[in-house]
Amino acid sequence: MELLDIEDQHLFYSGHAACPGCVEALAMRHILNTLGPDTVAVVPPSCTAIICGAQPCNSLKIPVYQTTLESSAAAASGVRRALDAQGKHHTTVIVMAGDGGTYDIGFQALSSAVERNEDMIYFCFDNEGYMNTGAQKSSATPLYASTGSTPAGKPSKKKDLTEIMAAHEIPYAATATPAHLTDLVRKVKKAKSIPGARMITVLIPCLPGWGLPDDAGIAAARLAVDTGMFPLYEVEDGQRYTLNQTTRTRPVRDYLMMQKRYGHLTAEQFDEVQATVDRSWARLVERSAAAH
Amino acid sequence: MNRPRQAIWTTQTTEVVKTGSWRAALPEYVNAPAPCHNACPVDGNIAVWIRHIENQAYDDAWLTLIDNNPFPAVTGRICHRPCEGPCNRGRLDESIAIRSLERFVGDMALEQGWPFPGTPVSKAETIAIVGGGPAGLAAAYHLRRMGYAVTLIEAQQELGGVMRYGIPPYRLPKDILDAEIQRILSLGVDVRTNTRISTRADFENLQSEFAAVYIATGATVPKRLPQLDYSKSWVIESAAYLEQTNAGRHPESGTRIVVIGGGSAAMDVARTARRHGKEVTVLSLEAESVMPAQRDEVLEAKDEGITLISGAMLQSVSDRAQHDLELACIRVEFEAGAVPGEFWVTPVPESEFTVDADTIVPAIGQDPDVTGLQDLMEVEAALVRIDGQQQTSLGGFFAGGDLVTMQRFVTVAFGFGKQAAVEIDRYLQSGTPARDRPAQPEVSIDVINTDYHPRADRAKQQLVPAPERQISFDEVVLALPIAAVLAESQRCFNCGHCTFCDNCFYFCPDMAINREHGGYSVNDDYCKGCGLCVRECPTGSIVMRQETR
Amino acid sequence: MNQSSKKMLLTGNHAVAWGARLARPKFMACYPITPQTPILEKLTEFQMAGELDAEILTPESEHSAMAACISASMTGVRVFTATSCQGLLLMHEVLHYASGVRAPIVMCNVNRTVASPWAFWPDQTDSVSQRDTGWIQLYSESGQESLDTVIQAFKIAEQVVCPVLVNQDAFYISHALEPVDVPAQETVDRYLPPFQPEHVLDPERGESIGNVVSPEMFCQHRKDIGQAMQLAIAVAQECDSEWERLVGRGYGIIDPYCCDDAELVIVTMGSMCGTVRHTVDEMRSRGRAVGLLKVRLFRPLPVEALRDALAGIPDVLVLDRNFSPGTGGVLHQELKGALYGMADAPHMHGYLAGVGGVNVPPRKIEEFVDQVHRSKPAIHSVWSG
């Protein structure tokens, strides 16, 4: 059994208001502890913002600037430039935003910031919906998932953010999950060592939003990867793809059946989802093979 | 100019918020019994000693093993492995080859010459053990470890019982057996071989010399088939066949031998006869899949060229000429009862067939010799009756092993011997009741997170090729190489025993698990009771406890 | 008076760029929009020539530009930006954010008509409609005044810890050339000390900002902003006086012109003041007792000063180059409120003059004065071309 061995710099405090079992808080814990104390974070309205805490408390040891929902990437650019103007080039600027503030209302600012190759690490905590406001759909919500605003199932596919970032040819784009901590930590360290715009999309199974029991966050994330619905991979400069897993070991049905938000799916819909995953997987395998 | 007040920058951390008030259940670290442990007749702490192997702490593995079993090299060869069936790993891919691992430790101890930790005689009482077989030897070991003086009385020339006189050397080499027996004797046991205690007077005399008596005389009286004339020269009882072989003599028989029986004794005698160059057929009442013999014994026997006719019974024998027998047989349907030894047989109409042979060796089981005992204590269906404390109806007389049970397994006998020591000790020290350990439920596969246990094939011990085996009494099953031992030990889930993998520590979103020396603790100020630690535990060593407040 | 100031022929936009440069900002995030673009272009020129040591960010929208300005300000550097009409409106959410978070940003807004329909003409609806966002607002009448006001704005902003909006009308000010006295860098350095905020985003300090607050905290915070705004009136006056002592040019927070013994005072903001001033001179020379009260500081509205200045004046005519549907002219509405309850309050007349950029020449203003004499004061603003 692979043993975890992750540095703990105590940059994330207990007492935060995440739901019991929230793996976004878990991801924050390990990301922060890997980045270290010379970091400033920008956070829009999101579950992350709630986890940061209510005035006068902060659950993060590093400074956090909470901005408006559209403007994470813009605000991070402001912090970055202001630090640079003061000669503090060593301080890492990060964004920790949800999929709403990244794929949708925050997308414009994000595209602009990465086109400018602003020096920041953007963490998107992708729980596939506007979970903080009660689980409404976002463009990150997958096909057929039931949400507060699509109770019969979302009729459109999930937007592929990592591919969009690859198309911007940013120095580093990657996917990660809190179930694969060693992989996540490696990617954070790698991202930290590369200048320019870096994006890590972390899949966050949301317990109330997806219909999972309190202790199922890790198991769900693991299944997402094992079924190929959320493959772990990296893209450097939009050209070099590296698939971090060699196989898929489970059918997507196993992953979907675990979550109440897919409880209404028909056999045809399961097949359709499996087919789309198969296609995406094949494409990734091809690209990764071409790069190595 | 006074700066206007700005009260919206943070000044403290969220640690002031004690989120522990949210929860309804709190995780608790437990030591829970693994199914192998519960199934082991000697209560072996299997998960623990396998973990020691994994950590390459072989001496610690050995110390854990001998806490319950002084014969690991023996059981590592001939135990019937009740632990491997319930093994949780078997629910994922294949169960752990526990017996193979035990043999590895047992053999290493012998190679390295590791002695038992010495125990001086510290108690006043001396205990007599009648019967130097598995139950008696185990009792001697455990009683010595408790500080009692022990006298071991054995009717035969040598100690060992069925281990020496029943099990052939290709399954259990004599030097291994001798070494493990000698190691027990080195603790200081008064041994009286060639001494038979059989009459009522013999037993009564013991009472005056000893504070308590443990009777473990085994089952030595062969059961008889009513349809066979045992006076004939072409009938050789299986125990006699094996005893002669063990004494170095070839039993006199014809070329074609039919062994009647489906248990280990039948396999032992069939394979021994094969090594004498005989054509051997085994006739078993039980269908092959439910034969009482261990499955690998049956397969090894067939590989060695033994013909197996299962689900059939002998009806009569025609003696056409001296050593030219025709056995009239019929197919049967066999049904085992709930109690060991209980069964029903239904002949299948018009399924008669014949088998030709020169010699018949019945191996259908044995009964204890209770002639000297039945006047002294309660005997039922040829077994001595004991109560829950291993005591017979005669005060101060305890009994165990094949004498009291139809479960005819060496390891079961070891368990009896161990339990007898506990009960005799309690009896002599005025019966202080044992402290009841609060029982944790046995660990089931449901609480093992198998995601952390990658698939891997079970280690397989290699066998000497069958053609070589047929002409030799050398050990058939070869030891596992050390790399395979280590790999196999890593397959073990360590059910109910924490392996300090740190999963619980790393997966807590609230940092409510602390790492401490020797384990973990839960910070109940902040634990929200989500249960992630429990679910991600690869050994099932954490449980959620409902909190009431 | 000034060591080595230089006289340059500058448009209002370029004057603003010079004012911003001299204040030594370290960060500017700008999005181009007519008629603001020359400000951004000039500043970029300064930077490329090595004359301006600042990070210039050009994001994809004004909303992002202001969002970046706020976070940069929170990270402890002096910030300047500029915009106009649509851009200002797009920033609306983050204008509130800037004042809420107490970011002492200075922004120049070039007043232009707001869509729909599309137009490029001078109109102050864009900035007056932002009067509730918590930004201090100043209105400039000339390129010179814009340069001076931008510099003053940094000092005001950093003292009261509130953002400041400096407004100048499209084309009349922004694109018109005039001789401008550009002070020396040393003069501005003497006037404007380095930016040293009390709180800053810094890993060594560990403070954070923006977390959710309780109702009581929110209410207290609004009171704190209100207090700062109140203080801003005196601070703005002080900063103007100090600047006047340094360079010889001061403008006041309101500027009465020929108001003593006036029978009618025209109240207005921005470039219209220049036209009115000219008309007042003309009319005074013909014996008409008219005056001009220029409102320079619009937010916070200097209520006491306005009441003092207009006490005893029989008639007041407010000229609004803006229109709020359902209300009329914003300055008219504000002034009505400011003067309410005065014992000797003037009769109030409000004209919507120049809305949409319609030209209002001196002749027209004379007509307004005559109209006022002929008519009774109306409660509502009157459309007057």
Describe the structure.
The complex is a heterotrimer of chains A (292), B (549) and C (385). Chain A has 292 residues and is of the alpha/beta class. Chain A has a single domain (23-291), classed as Rossmann fold (3-Layer(aba) Sandwich), CATH 3.40.50.970. Chain A is built from eleven helices and nine strands. Chain A has helices at 23-35, 47-52, 72-85, 100-104, 107-115, 161-167, 181-192, 207-210, 217-226, 252-257, 267-291, and strands at 39-43, 57-58, 64-66, 92-98, 120-126, 172-176, 197-203, 233-236, 240-243. Chain A is globular. Chain B is built from 17 helices and 21 strands. Chain B is globular, with a radius of gyration of 28 Å. In chain B, a hairpin with a 2-residue loop joins strand 16 and strand 17. Chain B has four domains: 16-31 and 498-546, 2-Layer Sandwich (Alpha-Beta Plaits), CATH 3.30.70.20; 35-114 and 448-491, Fumarate Reductase Iron-sulfur Protein, Chain B, domain 2; 126-220 and 368-428, FAD/NAD(P)-binding domain; 224-362, FAD/NAD(P)-binding domain (3-Layer(bba) Sandwich), CATH 3.50.50. Chain B has 549 residues and is of the alpha/beta class. Chain B starts with 11 loop residues before the first strand and ends with a strand. By secondary structure, chain C is an alpha/beta fold. In chain C, helix 10 links the parallel strand 10 and strand 11 (290-295). The model of chain C has no long low-confidence stretch (mean pLDDT 96). Strand 2 (57-58) of chain A pairs parallel with strand 1 of chain B.
Characterize this entry briefly.
The complex is a heterotrimer of chains A (292), B (549) and C (385). With 292 residues, chain A is an alpha/beta fold.
What is the secondary structure topology, with strand pairs?
The complex is a heterotrimer of chains A (292), B (549) and C (385).
Chain A: H1 23-35, E1 39-43, H2 47-52, E2 57-58, E3 64-66, H3 72-85, E4 92-98, H4 100-104, H5 107-115, E5 120-126, H6 161-167, E6 172-176, H7 181-192, E7 197-203, H8 207-210, H9 217-226, E8 233-236, E9 240-243, H10 252-257, H11 267-291
Parallel strand pairs in A: 1-3, 1-4, 4-5, 5-7, 6-7
Antiparallel strand pairs in A: 6-8, 8-9
Helix pairs in contact in A: 1-7, 3-5
Chain B: E1 12-13, E2 25-29, H1 35-39, H2 46-54, H3 58-66, H4 72-78, H5 98-112, E3 126-130, H6 134-145, E4 149-153, H7 162-165, H8 174-185, E5 190-192, H9 200-209, E6 212-215, E7 221-222, H10 238-246, E8 256-260, H11 264-275, E9 279-284, H12 295-303, E10 307-310, E11 312-321, E12 324-336, E13 343-357, E14 359-362, E15 366-367, E16 379-380, E17 383-384, E18 397-399, H13 410-428, H14 466-469, H15 482-491, H16 503-507, E19 513-516, E20 519-522, H17 532-535, E21 542-546
Parallel strand pairs in B: 3-4, 3-6, 4-5, 6-18, 8-9, 8-14, 9-10
Antiparallel strand pairs in B: 2-21, 7-15, 11-12, 12-13, 16-17, 19-20
Chain C: E1 6-11, H1 12-22, E2 27-29, H2 37-48, E3 55-57, H3 62-74, E4 79-84, H4 85-90, H5 92-100, E5 106-111, H6 125-128, E6 136-139, H7 143-160, E7 164-169, E8 177-182, H8 185-191, H9 215-247, E9 254-257, E10 264-268, H10 272-285, E11 290-295, E12 297-299, H11 303-310, E13 315-320, H12 330-339, E14 347-352, H13 362-374, E15 382-383
Parallel strand pairs in C: 2-3, 2-4, 4-5, 5-7, 6-7, 10-11, 10-13, 13-14, 14-15
Antiparallel strand pairs in C: 1-8, 6-12, 9-11
Helix pairs in contact in C: 1-2, 1-7, 3-5, 7-9, 10-13
